[in-house]
Amino acid sequence: MINSNFRKKMADSWFSYLQTQICKSFELLENNKLKFSKRDWHKQNVQEGGGTSYLLTGGKIFDKVGVNKSTVSGIFPKKFRSKILGAEKKGKYWASGVSVVAHMKNPKIPAVHFNTRFIVTSKEWFGGGMDVTPSHVDIKESKIVHSELKKICLQNKKNYKKYKNWCDEYFYLPHRNEARGIGGIFFDYETKDWINNFKFVRDLGLAFIDISNKIISRKKNLKYKKKDKEKQLLKRGRYVEFNLLYDRGTKFGLNSGGNVNSILMSLPPEAKWK
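Predicted structure:
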């Protein structure tokens, strides 16, 4: 039987590998003319880990994209423990994961978000997902995203409908009474069958690269007007609202002593409200 420390090492190694592959893929979309900048960070107590953030801005494709990976441990603040499975009593945790948010220069290309994580408290589980936030409706694009995610779920005997509905419910702005985007899949608290869950997380990570490439390649040469950019900036405003008000990852990061700049890398370089 695989022990907990080995499971942690396996997950940590995979997330590091995936981070590298995502960065290489995105640099290739920029024809390798623009490279990610790298920043390492550590928690105040360096024994509790840290992470590596890669950031690329001002590209022909990417207005801003961050690819973060972290592996941290510690004890949650008492007020936050009840919100995390298995942390209610002692508050002790270990967590590793990779998170990606890409805001595109061309408003015809949607923003994409992806993250997967492995968390250990008195319980162990995987969580994560992928979703897409367009500022312009594209039925064919939506079909590509959902069909590819459904295929990955079916291949791994996962309940696609459950994950899709969970995503729709999660990425919703109740104060606006509207969805953040067209959804995707979202899952959490996958505590059983570590080996198969780990395979699913790996498959989803590789699928994210493939889906992102398909989405971008379809539209990277499309022309757009000022009104298209205006619409994108307003949609980005909704993105900001969700991430600051509701996002679990943001709250988890801030309550686990994470790096503020890395946590807030999901915010777009420019947004508007009216």
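Summary: The radius of gyration is 18 Å.
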